[in-house]
Amino acid sequence: MADTLRIATFHTQLSRAGPGLLLRDILRGEDAQVAATVAVIAAAAADVVVLQDMDFDAGGAALTALADALAQAGIDYPHRLALRPNTGMPTGVDIDGDGRSWRARDAQGYGRFNGQGGMALLSRHPFGAVRDFSGFLWVDLPDSAAPAVLPPEALPVLRLATVAAWDVAVEVPGGPLHLLALHAGTPVFDGPEDRNGWRNADELRFWALYLEGWTPEGVPFAAEHFAVIGTFNVDPEGGEGRPEGLLALLEHPRLQDVVPRRPGGGTQTADWPEPEPGDLRVDYILPAAGMTVTGAGVLWPEGEEGPVAASVAALASDHRLVWVDLEMVGD
C-alpha cells in the first residue's frame, strides 16, 4: 500500500537580536511574526518540516514552544530535532581580515551569539540515526577551495557548514527516509577573493560527493529513499553565487529536481527587493531519482483568501515554504 508523505523546508525569520528573545516572543503569544510563521507551517500540513534561521538553545525550549503553538493551531509534531549549529561559534581567527577576531563574521557561521539562526526539524514520525557533519573542516573536503581563499591560520579551524549539515533518518511507513538537510551560507558579503561564494559552492558539493560514496567519517551513504533539502542560497539563473555547487546537485544522477512552483507559475522562493537581488529560487527539495513525486509547490499565496493570506506569508518571512509529496510504499 502506498502512503503519501509531505516534506517541507521553510527558511523562517525566527531569529532575534539576543539569546532567549525568541522563546520570550513565542511564549507571550503576542508576536505577529511568530503567529504568521505558525499559520504558514500549519497551512502546509507537512509530515516533516526542516526549519532554517531559528535560534538554537541547548534545552530546545524555543523549538518546544513553537511545537506547542503549532499544536494549538491543529498540527502536532511530537518529534523534534535541533543540534548545535555553527552560527555564532567563535573561531578565534580574523576570518574577514578587519584586524579583529571576535566579531560575527569571524564565527564559524555568521552570528552575533552562539546558536543565532540555527536549523531544526519537526516531524510527525520518529527519528532514527542522525549523522551531524557540522564539525567537518572546510579544508578537508576533496578539492576544497579553502586554501585559496582563507588566511592560513583559519585552515585548521574553519568548518565547511555555515549553519549545519545533517543526515537524519525519519522512520516513516515504507522504511527510513533520509533528509540530507543544510542551510548553506550566502555567497555575498565578502571581498574579491569570493570566500563566501566558494564556501557556498563547497557546502553544496559536499552532498554531491556524499551521494557518490565519499564520506567524512563512518560508512558510505547507501540509502534508497532520501532528499537533499534546505536553503542553498543560490539561484540557477539569477543573483550572485557560483553555479558549480548547485549544478552538482541539480544535475546529479541520484537526484531529481521537480521544480516546485508558485501558484502563478514562478519558481522563486524568496521575496527580495527589486531590481537587486530580486525574487530568487534559493530553497530546494531534491528527492532521490527513483522516488515517485505526486505533488510539489511553493506556498506563495497571491491574495488574502485561502488557508493563509499573502500578507501573512510576507510577514512570516521573506522566504516561502517549499513542499514535496512523496509516495512511500508501506506494508
UniProtKB/TrEMBL annotation:
<keyword id="KW-0255">Endonuclease</keyword>
<dbReference type="GO" id="GO:0004519">
    <property type="term" value="F:endonuclease activity"/>
</dbReference>
<dbReference type="GO" id="GO:0004527">
    <property type="term" value="F:exonuclease activity"/>
</dbReference>
<keyword id="KW-0269">Exonuclease</keyword>
<keyword id="KW-0540">Nuclease</keyword>
<dbReference type="InterPro" id="IPR005135">
    <property type="entry name" value="Endo/exonuclease/phosphatase"/>
</dbReference>
<feature type="region of interest" description="Disordered">
    <location>
        <begin position="259"/>
        <end position="278"/>
    </location>
</feature>
<keyword id="KW-0378">Hydrolase</keyword>
<dbReference type="Pfam" id="PF03372">
    <property type="entry name" value="Exo_endo_phos"/>
</dbReference>
<protein>
    <submittedName>
        <fullName>Endonuclease/exonuclease/phosphatase family metal-dependent hydrolase</fullName>
    </submittedName>
</protein>
<dbReference type="InterPro" id="IPR036691">
    <property type="entry name" value="Endo/exonu/phosph_ase_sf"/>
</dbReference>
<feature type="domain" description="Endonuclease/exonuclease/phosphatase">
    <location>
        <begin position="29"/>
        <end position="319"/>
    </location>
</feature>
